[in-house]
Fold each of these.
Amino acid sequence: MGMVIGRRAALLGGAALGTGAFAIGKARAAADFSYKFATNVPATHPLNVRLQESFDRIKKDSNGALEITLFPNNQLGADTDVLNQLRSGAVEFFTLSGVILSTLVPVASINGIGFAFNDYDTVWKAMDGELGAHIRGEIAKANIVAMDRIWDNGFRHITMSTRPIRTPDDLKDVKMRVPVSPLWTSMFRAFGSAPVSINAAEMYSALQTKIAEGQENPLAAIWNTKIFEVQKYLALTGHMWDGYWPLANRRAWNALPNDLRAMAAKHLNQGALDQRADLAVLNTSLRADLEGKGMLFNEVNKEQFRNRLRQAGFYAEWRGRFGDAPWKILEKFAGGLQ
C-alpha cells in the first residue's frame, strides 16, 4: 500500500492509536504513516500549492505522525493508471476530475453536464450540498473515500488552432481533444464534432502534431499547460464546470487513527476553500495573460449551444444514464435542462 508504519505504532498496536495518540511532544525519527498524493496538474497550479500547504499543516499538527508527499504533473502516470494505483493502494491519495472518475463511478460526472451551471454560486451550493453528498456516497461504493469539499478546476472553454468557435455550427467535424470520459465524447458528438479521447499527459503533443485541432479546459489549465503555444483562438463557452475530488484509498484512510483522520480531512477541506478563492482571482487575471501570449478571445451565446444539446437528445440520454433520482437533484440547482 505504500504505507510505512513507525516502530512506536507497531509496538503499541493499532487499537492503542486512539484519540490524541499522535499528538505527542517528541519529534519522530520517521512518520507513523507516509502516504503519496498524486495529481495531474503542474507543480505551480494552485491545486498543488494549496495541497502542499495542507500537507505541511497536517505534518505539523500531527507532530510528524502523518507525512504526505506530493507527486504533481502526472509523475506517477496518466489519470487512468493512477486511478488503478489508488484502488490497489500503490498510491494513497489522488485528485481526479469527477468526469474522468465516471469511468468507475458513473454519476461522478453529473456536475459536468453541458451548460448545467451558470455561475460559481450555483456550483458550490450543489457540490457542497445535496449533489456532492450523493456523488460521494456513490464513490464510497467503489472503496474510495472522497473528501467533503471538491477542489475547483473551473468552467471549461474551447480553444482552436485553426479558427474561432462562435456558434455550434463552427464545431462541425472539428477534431476535438477530450479527456477519456463518455460524457465529453457524447457532448461533442452532439455538436457534430469528431472527439478524440486523449489523457492530459499527451494533450500538448496531440495539439502540436495536429492529431487534434482543438481542446477545452479551464483558463488556469490552459495557462499552466502552455496550451497558448499551440492554440490561437479561445471561445468563452463555459460549457462545463469541472472539479477535482481529493480521493483516498479506503484501506489507507481507515488505517489512520480517528483523530488523525479527522485532522487530515479538516486541513484538506480548508485547502479546497483556499484553492477555490485562488482560482476566483486567477480567472479575472488570466484572460489578460493569455491575450498577452497571443490568444484571441470571443464570447458566445450559450443558449444556442444549450439548445443544440437539447435538439441532439443529449440531456435526455444522460438523464437516462444517470437515473431520475440524481438528475432531479441536479435540476434543483441547475433548473430544467430538457
Amino acid sequence: MRKVTIGHFKVIGISVRTTNQNNQAGKDIADLWNRFMNDKISEAIPNKIDNTVYSIYTDYESDHTKPYTTILGCRVENLNDIPNGMIGKSFDGGNYVKLSAKGDLSKDLIINKWLEIWQMDLERVFTADFEVFSEKAQNPTDAEIDFLIAVK
C-alpha cells in the first residue's frame, strides 16, 4: 500500500447504479462487465488514451454501504464525442492509496480485495475509487489489478 496523487482525468464507458446490500453489486457489476465485453464497448470509445479499462466507483450516497455508481470505461482525451448508450465523466483526481491484488479473476480476486479494503482504517473520501485493468490484467487466471482508493 502506498500513497499516490492522481491528476484530473476523463472517462467514457457504460454505467450502473447499484448497492452492496444483499450482494446486488456482485450481480449488477458482473452484468455490466458482460455487456462491456460482449458489446465490445472498449472498441467503440472515441479518443481513448490507451486500452486500459477502469472500473470506477463514484457518486456515493455516503459510503460503501449505500448506493453508488459503477462505470466501466477507458480514459479519453476529451468528452466531445460520447456515443449513444454511454456516459462521459470527468474526475478531479486527488490523494489515493494504491493497493494491488494478484491471482485468478474467476476466484473472487476483486471482491476479496474489496472486503479487505472495507476493513482497513483508511480516511476514505468516497469521491471516486477505481480498479485498473492494464496489460497486467490480460491473463484472467494470473491477473494483477491495481486498486486506487480516494483518501483525505
Amino acid sequence: MLTAAAHSELIGALALVVAAPGGPNPDAQTEIGALLDAWPIPFPSLPAATEFFGGGPVGAGWAAGLERQDDG
C-alpha cells in the first residue's frame, strides 16, 4: 500500500485482502461500520481528507480514491 501511494502514477488499481490470525471476528461488520460512520461526509477538502486518513503518502493514497461530488 505504501508503494502504491508513493508511486500512484504506476498503479491503476489496488486490491487489499485483510486477514488476521485467530479466526473470524464476529464483530467485524459492526467495527467496520462504526469506522465508516466516523468519516466526515462530505470531507471539507482534499487536504482535510488526507489528514483524516493519517497524512503523508498513505493518507494521500486513501484520499485520492474518494469521488468528488457536487456536495463535497
